[in-house]
Specification:
heterodimer; A: alpha+beta; Alpha-Beta Plaits; four-stranded antiparallel sheet; 9 helices; about 70% helix; B: alpha/beta; 7 helices; globular
Amino acid sequence: MSLRSLEFASAESFVGIKRNALMSLASITTVGLTLAVLGGFALLILGLNNTAKTQLQKFEVAAFVKKGSAESAVKELDEKIRTLSHVKDVQLVTADEAWLEFRRDMSGSIDLTGVKHNPLPHTFRVTTDDPASTAAVAAGIRRMDGIDEVNEASREVEQVMRLTNLIKLIGGIAVGLLFLVTAFIVGNTIRMTVYARRREIRIMQLVGATNWFIRMPFVLEGTILGTIGGGIACILVYFGARYVSQTAVRIMPLLSQFTSNTDPVQFFGCIILMGSLLGMMSSIISVRRFLKA
Amino acid sequence: MIEYRNVSVIYPNCIQALRNINLQIEKGEFVFVVGPTGSGKSTLLRLVNREERPTSGEVCVAGKDLSKMRGGAVPRLRRAIGVVFQDYRLLPQKTAAENIAFALFVTGAPRKEIMSRVIESLDLVGLADRADAYPHELSGGEQQRVSVARAIINNPQILIADEPTGTLDPDTSWEITRTLERINIRGTTVIVASHDQHIVDRMHTRVIAIENGVIKRDVKEGTYHELAKS
């Protein structure tokens, strides 16, 4: 691809966009909306995944030691838990530490000054190397002597995972359909440009222009439309996500923990890139058939 | 230069345009293809630059079998073949010079070279003074000369013209034909499809007559109709 043919292609593609201003606008809008929906779903899924990972798996299993157990018994339990398979880490939180932590967390919300005795037991916080094996680990610990009670987050993890999968499915279907619609509209826009230039294309073919030379302006036109659409999607997703999260946090303050933890540059870069690719592919497909020499 | 071997063309609607054509055109020849409308003249011409492909048989141009040619090689073939149409096929929003330059431009020629060759080409067809006119400002004959100038800008080995004088008055037709003759003298093989009896008879060159897709006559120094004596 020489510089001159690129120059030709870019000049021609802008003429094409101007000529079908309305269809171009429709293409940009559909690309924008499609990618905004995709981006919204992606943010939601990333957020759920992230929450499941960071919040719920922090200590997946909490085992409470029977009150009044001897220190040696606690130590023995620690070692026993470590021998279970899939156990990644065992952390002992003593009753005193737990009490301190609890009082710190609750300061301001509950008045604990009247409580003289520490009601909390020693606690083991056990992390596993795989969320799916949490239940088995919990069951293993529950069978041990000296353990009073075992709490596991596996059910919550499972629920979040199930929700994530459902959203993935719905999002996948919605985005897939929208992609088809978008490809159709962008493709049609390009085809209109092709149709408007059929005489030029014919002449170019007859004087021996290569297919790529002829195709280039149209492919570039589609890519430009897609890229602009991607940019619009970014703006929509950015403000949409900000509005939704602000509203949600106002209603449920607990949701402030909910974050997708993604790099915005990477995320929006991906959306714009997808817009460019979507535009490019749509125009390649729609021009291909026309240029069978 | 151009060779047809047992060429038949059948269109998808089952119309047989050419039947078993065997024909050879040598380098530097000036050939008229004559015959009534629908006889297969255009198809015969369009086989040369692979606008059309034979249903059976083979067409060789400059020693290359076009049916075996890859699609990617077609642009190079077409750069060696100039084409002129009855309806000129000029781009209305480009000037005469730009129309001619366009043919060079799309092949990636350097800008400086394009300029000088456009001027040279316009000179050859006698239109140097109308370089900046738009097609709608030119007469039919002038437009056709622009299209001839465009066809020869790549210095093609072959020039094919499909009814180049079909819509022009006799004087202008003769001028265009003389222009084609000048190009032929420079060494380009010229094939003209025509049903302009006057011009064909006046040129007195090789004439190939086609009727219903079959070659009826192929005469070295021929005329439009078969002469009663010969």
